[in-house]
Amino acid sequence: MLSAGRGGLISLVLTGTLLLLPGLVAAAREEADETTLYVTLGESDQLALVDPWNFKVKRTIKIDPRPHGLNASPDGEKIYLTSEVTGNLQVIDAAKGEILGNIHVGHDPNQLAVTPDGKLAFVPLRGEAAVAVVELEPELKLVRRLSVPEMPHNIYTSADGRRAYVGCIRGSAIVVIDTAAREVAATIQMPGGVRPMALKRDGSLIYVALSRLHGFAVFDPLARRIINQVELPRLPEGTPRPFLDTYTHGLALSADEKELWVTSCAGDAIYAFSLPDYRQKARIHVGHFPHWFALRPDGKVLFLSNWLSDAVSAIDVVGKKVLANVEFARGTGPKRILVASRRRSKRSQESE
After folding, report:
1. Which of 56, 124, 54 is nearest to 89 (CA)?
2. 248 to each of 1, 74, 244, 317, how far by Cα in Å?
3. What CA–CA distance (Å, rounded) separates 348 from 70?
4. Strand pairing partners for 163?
5. Beta-carbon neighbour count of residue 215 at 10 Å?
6. Residue 15 pLDDT > 50, yes or no?
7. For residue 276, how many C-alpha atoms fall within 13 Å in the half-sphere facing its CB?
8. Which of 123, 257, 295, 352 is deepest in the core (most CB within 10 A)?
9. What domain range is 235 assigned to?
10. What is the CATH number of the domain that holds 204?
């Protein structure tokens, strides 16, 4: 198994069985797409590229300072970033690590969404109570701004690409955008500031983190109402109030959507709940202020950024334990993370 060490080191503890795995993994990866874990170091000007199989940093790319939003084109060839400082949307060539383009979208852009066809990005402008609509193909172009309630924070597209859901913190609302019309279709008031969300692929439910809630709400987008609310175990007496009342931030569904993973930012832990009965299956102690999840394509490893510990944890989804911690320089603050795959070129495959 893997055990995590301090100072950025990861140690491998090998057994007789595990000694057979590297060859098997290498053979499988020869036939697979190239997959990378992207990590925004949110308090710096760096994007780290990590191997999601051996948990080692491959390289870093200099980008605009204080990146907040992170996404990829459907084919994984381009990485999209937003910067709180410059207000830019940047496009990175995933293969070369080069910046392909920049476009200014507005004040304090946060977590953007990309439509499944890769043609549009919806970017929440936390400082402007607006969403920027950007054409990504055939060229970068800001085509529209949509007015939304205050402090739009994260945007997610439905699996069919027809709708985008915007979570607004100060406005305490979920905004539904018609992606084809590029217009706001509905605004639904919520009982608290809307933080990250996790959408079921069939569009039937959205799991929502809310300000001041140590847990999550279950939102029915068709009925446009909350149908359930689940609270995490009570925090110890005297637990400090977290930044911006963010008791829960990242949420993630397992590959089979039979589990929901939930962060406890104030408790330095993550929880796994079975679905649809919302039964707690595990509690795992992690770093300070667990922030964002990203699932490896095989569904076996869930990555977690620990903002105030300057580390990303690799979680064994089945075993419910930390496999390794990838550590970064003190004060760099990893926030948004993403696992994306791109097709290897013929030349790349031959060179391996």
Report:
1. 124
2. 29, 28, 11, 19
3. 26
4. 178
5. 18
6. no
7. 7
8. 123
9. 2-9+36-343
10. 2.130.10.10
Question: What is the torsional sign of CA 169, 170, 175, 179?
Answer: negative
Residue 85 lies in a domain: yes
In tens, the pLDDT along 301-342 reads 999 999 999 999 999 999 999 999 999 999 999 999 999 999
* 238 backbone φψ class: left, alpha, beta (φ>0; ψ -120 to 50): left
User: What dihedral angle (degrees, nearest 10) is formed by the CA atoms of 143, 177, 150, 228?
Assistant: -160
Determine the residue type at 194: V
- Stated pTM of the model: 0.89
Distance between CA atoms of residues 270 and 255, nearest Å: 17
Q: What percent of the chain has pLDDT over 70?
A: 88
Amino acid type, 31:
E
In a domain, 352, yes or no: no
d(CA 69, CA 195): 14
188 near 224, Cβ under 8 Å?
A: yes
Angle at 256 between CA 179 and CA 324, to 5 degrees: 100
CB atoms within 10 A of CB 334: 29
Query: How far apart, in whole angstroms, are the C-alpha atoms of residue 71 and residue 130?
Result: 19
DSSP state of 20: G
Residues 120-139: what's their mean pLDDT? 96
Q: From CA 324, how far away is CA 304, in angstroms rounded?
A: 11
Closest C-alpha to 174, from 213, 209, 200: 209
Strands of 120-125's sheet, edge to edge? 113-114, 120-125, 130-135, 141-147
348 lies in some domain: no
Residues 61-87 have pLDDT tens digits of: 999 999 999 999 999 999 999 999 999
Amino acid in position 50: V
Tell me which residue has tokens 């170091």. Answer: 41
Residue 199 one-letter amino acid: L
**Number of independent structural domains in the chain:** 1
Number of helices and strands in the chain (H, E): 2, 30
In a domain, 24, yes or no: no
Q: Which amino acid, one-letter code, is at 346? A: K
- Residue 192: per-residue pLDDT: 97
